[in-house]
Amino acid sequence: MTRPHGSGRKTALKDRPAIDPPAWFAEQANQADPSVYETFEREWPDCWRRAAELLDWEEAYDSVLDGEDGPPFEWFAGGTLNASYNCIDRHLPERKNQLALIWEGHGESRTYTYRELSREVNAVAAALRERGVEEDDVVTIYLPMVPELPVVMLACVRLGVVHNVVFAGFSSGALAERMERTGSELLVTCDGYYRRGSAVAQKNKADNARIAVEQDVSVVVLDRLGRDVHLGKDYYDYATLRDAHDGETVDPVPRDASDTLFRIYTSGTTGEPKAVDHTTGGYLAHVAWTSESVLDVKPTDTYWCSADIGWITGHSYIVYGPLALGTTTVLYNGTPDHPEKDRLWDIVERYAVDVFYTAPTAIRAFMKWGEEYPAQHDLSSLRLLGTVGEPIDERAWQWYREHIGGGEAPVVDTWWQTETGAILVATLPGVDAMKPGAAGKPLPGIETDVVDPAGEPVDRGEAGELVVTRPWPGMPRALRTGEDWGAASVHGDEWRYYPEDGATVDGDGYVTFLGRIDDAINVAGRRFSTMELESAIAGVEGVAETAVVGANHATTGTAVYAYVSPEGNCAEADLEARIEAAVEAAIGSVATPEAIIFTPDLPKTRSGKVMRRLLTAVANGDELGDTSALRNPEILGELQSATPDR
Ligand code: WTA
Questions:
Q1: pLDDT per residue over 321-360, tens digit each?
Q2: Does residue 206 fall inside a structural domain?
Q3: Is the CB of residue 35 less than 8 Å from the CB of residue 570?
Q4: Helix count (H) and strand count (E) of the chain?
């Protein structure tokens, strides 16, 4: 493989070169059977029994899937189970003294064996029950990345209580909206926490949200700062509640496979938060199976997903998948560059992390900081690398494999969404060749297609919209029941789910994602995906990160504005010429950016997603609107003055 410097990538429409998984990886992989695709196809939907078999069921299910052709779909009907039992109790006979959690915080760290985790979860479950929480109630959790976050989640599900985790970095308004919509009457939060060395006043935000909602809310407060916070009426101290029940045991409440395990909100197309309810049986089976087959997680591993539990990635692949498989999962509370830019690699080395799962935006930041930071550490424990959250361009993929994976570790690019609950498209690293830049094939048992606006399949290599054409075990309640969710529909007599992602599929069935379909830019009647442009620009040596938006243009309708954050000491004039050449080579001069604007950073949400909406507003000279979700609002003024007057 040569890196496609300067010339940009070949375009998504051509087949990408494939890289076989190394033999040493396949030899030890959980999933190394090349016939797995055929077997799943032949046995569908019964193939998903294999996923269910990774769990312990209280009551065996009667059928794998009821309602194959259309909603309502019911996975594992008749089966009952408890997620807390599956993530903790069943591991105790074999590995009670093995670590379940490793927590790295701000100047402190803590570990929990499975036995210690069991003790915590039982005590907190007993305390919640005493506070009057009952099966199917919704408890809202507003905690940063501390061990008590998964403890409270598991305590809830032990009782059959639905948790509603709200990302700790959200505002009090966002918290209030999510509490009110669920009618949640109990909130678990903390006094505050440290971020980049300074304290965030979490309880203040929680107090404001509590006052803003209609229902009465009692609040359990975890003391993180040790500042002797005064707790008024309906406020309870976490440690006091926990200690009062220390040593008690609570029987896990058996739940129907289709009962809700948790609720999580995501951004819907309407601009209002959209509630996604995941199930106890189908979801847990799907996350366990993908943790095993895609992320190759083994009980003996130290596994680290660097996401925040406040997002779906953390729910599925920090808490439920890894713990269901009985592995050691790492929780990190902090940022990747504090105190130093080698923070993550220091953690990988210290704990000898086997599998590391992160987001392309983080990888692009690592590239920007330079390879000298990972080079300071022994990363040879890493066996497998994963990415999720957005398309990863070929250059970032190669950098990740080279500088983090020692040029050896396979990289799995995993495509999924809050709505899908678990991974749907990725390569199976013990079976499939990898194609950098393409996520991979739909997993065994998953069927997708790429269609045009009329819903008809496009030719191989043509861009279109991805559709999922069969139900999957991790599907959320609204899709199972067929209620109107705006994203599922019937085409002819075929049920489909529309994730709203643009994609192409190549001759081997590998899907390349082109970004959200609502991010398309139409220049002079030709539609370009922001991803396609970004991928071309990101392939240019000296570019650390880029985001492309459409700005109104008098003649072409829309013009391409490229915001580019360059690596260290790169001459901008030279870079500009090479970016133009790369776009021309990859797509054509019709797509050459109208403006290339250099910036030290892009506006990002706290989860690291680039806020294109704000860049579009900046490019158009419009009002910026709500900027409260930004992690770096200070960058906006700089961007406004750097953007050419129109
Ligand atoms: C995008 C995060 C390309 C996609 C798990 C999807 C990806 C949205 C990938 C869901 C990937 C996620 N390649 N795009 N590997 N993974 N996406 O709900 O647009 O926060 O629809 O779930 O992220 O984001 P969400």
A1: 999 999 999 999 988 998 899 999 999 999 999 999 999 8
A2: yes
A3: no
A4: 22, 31
The answer to whether the bond into 600 is cis (omega within 30° of 0) is no
Distances (CA, A) of 476 to 123, 260, 507, 563: 30, 9, 31, 36
316 CB near ligand 1 (under 6 Å): no
Q: What is the domain-level CATH number for residue 143?
A: 3.40.50.980
Closest among 263, 79, 252, 248 to 158, alpha carbons compared: 252
Domain boundary among 205, 235, 253: 253
Q: What radius of gyration, in Å, describes the C-alpha atoms of the chain?
A: 24
Domain ends where: 253, 270, 289? 253
DSSP for residue 59: B
Tell me which amino acid residue 171 is: S
The end-to-end CA distance of the chain, in Å, is 43
pLDDT tens-digit map of 441-482? 999 999 999 999 888 999 998 989 999 999 999 999 988 888
Q: What is the ipTM for the molecules in this complex?
A: 0.99
> How many angstroms is it from 581 CA to the middle of ligand 1?
29
CATH number for position 574: 3.30.300.30
Amino acid at 133: V
| Host domain of residue 587 | 520-642
Q: How far is the CA of 26 from the centre of ligand 1 (A)?
A: 27
Q: Please report whether residue 475 resides in a domain.
A: no
Ligand 1 proximity of 417 Cβ (cutoff 6 Å):
yes
Tell me which of 358, 417, 435, 466 to substitute to probe ligand 1's pocket, judged by most ligand atoms within 8 Å of the beta carbon: 417
Residue 229: burial class (beta carbons within 10 Å; 0-12, 13-18, 19+): middle
Identify the DSSP state of 534. H
**Which helix (DSSP H) or strand (DSSP E) does residue 154 occupy?**
helix 148-158
Total domains in the chain come to 2
Name which residue sits closest to atom 11 of ligand 1, judged by CA: 415
